[in-house]
Amino acid sequence: MDTTARHLLVELFACDARLLDDAPALQALLRAAAEAAGARVVAEVFHPFAPHGVTGVVVIEESHLSIHTWPELGYAAVDFYTCGEVRPERAIELLAAKLGAARVERLEVARGGPADHTLRVSERLSARSQGHS
Amino acid sequence: MDTTARHLLVELFACDARLLDDAPALQALLRAAAEAAGARVVAEVFHPFAPHGVTGVVVIEESHLSIHTWPELGYAAVDFYTCGEVRPERAIELLAAKLGAARVERLEVARGGPADHTLRVSERLSARSQGHS
Hints:
Strand content of chain A: 35-45%
Oligomer: homodimer
Number of domains of chain A: 1
Number of strands of chain A: 7
Structural class of chain A: alpha+beta
Order of helices and strands of chain A: EHHEEEEHEE
CATH superfamily of chain A: S-adenosylmethionine decarboxylase
Helix content of chain A: 10-25%
Radius of gyration of chain A: 15 Å
Largest sheet of chain A: 7 strands, antiparallel
Low-confidence stretches of chain A: none
């Protein structure tokens, strides 16, 4: 078996605050994002915090997609660990669009595989949406 | 509220293969690791895969600790996203020791906080246990 995996760490800024505090809506959105990436969901756990914020994790075949939200600041921290043919970029694009993120910061880290491969930063991206400040 | 968080990505090599395939034991171990770090566990999901391997996620106050295992290769991929006063190093030390990891690779990435802070690689560590090859 191949242990090579991609781990995307994503910061979503200036999101829709209401949606960031809606645990059922976030659960449906993360499931849709995982499926958009071509992943098969096997388990989910979503937990609302008081007074604000949601933590959610979708477990996929040997991988996971997580979100932690701070609605009062319009901020969400996402990570997506993926193996095989999954296309995590598609999940991130869907999440950023549906949450209305004005700014997206993304870091990709190589996981698993040979010793000289693992934990290398393989990509860093920064993007702002049109029409947002 | 402060969104500043620490995200530790950890590779554990040459672990105890039997333990990496024991979902109930891993669940107890991750819970113990989260508590050793000073975190409060609010939800858990563990999923065994066929023929081998386990994915587990422990949700903690606005953070998470995850593991994906490849028992046949003695390999586990861990990530620990933490806010506040949690000491994730303590969790990683416990996991590495209990799983008998001969080699540990660790990358720490800064999350949240001000724009010039987020997604910076703040630490990279590599360690081998004594008495292992």
